Inverse folding.
């Protein structure tokens, strides 16, 4: 008799580093749903960053469809993307994640990964995707994870001890009082 594993939302509270590394090393074509042309929006600079790291990006935004950013054409929907998609990166709210996942599951070939950005978690969408054999990562950012594993995040002093939120004690003068 075949044993069916039930969905366990607790598995998505944390992920082993090796699981995230495997996704980042194996996917090549990423559809980023919720792309914005606003340079201060995370979806804008995540798209730019991932393209610069060698990924093929398909930004998805119906209002920007047909425009090009960083050499990547923007599409109105996942179904409009002309080639196979390895990963769908969801830059929309948690409620929208289920509809986007449903759209991804209708693609042929079906993507290998559904990735929901920081602050985005939808267990119902994750359960559907995993039932179809997809890997699901929620509440994480591929840009941050790539930077963490590649060491790039340390280039700016983050996690190196070079940058601190604590005011440094200056010899015989107390705390530094200068600000930005």
């Amino acid at each position: 008799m075949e044993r069916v594993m039930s969905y366990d939302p607790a598995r998505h509270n944390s992920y082993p580093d090796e699981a995230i590394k495997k996704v980042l090393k194996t996917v090549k074509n990423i559809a980023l749903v919720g792309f914005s042309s606003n340079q201060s929006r995370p979806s804008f600079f995540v798209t730019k960053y991932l393209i610069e790291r060698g990924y093929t990006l398909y930004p998805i935004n119906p209002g920007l469809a047909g425009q090009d950013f960083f050499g990547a054409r923007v599409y109105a929907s996942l179904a409009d993307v002309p080639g196979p998609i390895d990963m769908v990166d969801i830059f929309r709210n948690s409620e929208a994640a289920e509809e986007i996942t449903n759209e991804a599951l209708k693609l042929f070939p079906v993507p290998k990964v559904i990735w929901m950005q920081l602050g985005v978690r939808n267990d119902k969408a994750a359960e559907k995707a995993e039932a179809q054999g997809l890997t699901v990562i929620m509440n994480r950012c591929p840009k941050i994870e790539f930077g963490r594993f590649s060491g790039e995040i340390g280039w700016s002093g983050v996690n190196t001890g070079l940058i601190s939120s604590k005011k440094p004690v200056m010899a015989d003068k107390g705390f530094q009082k200068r600000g930005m």
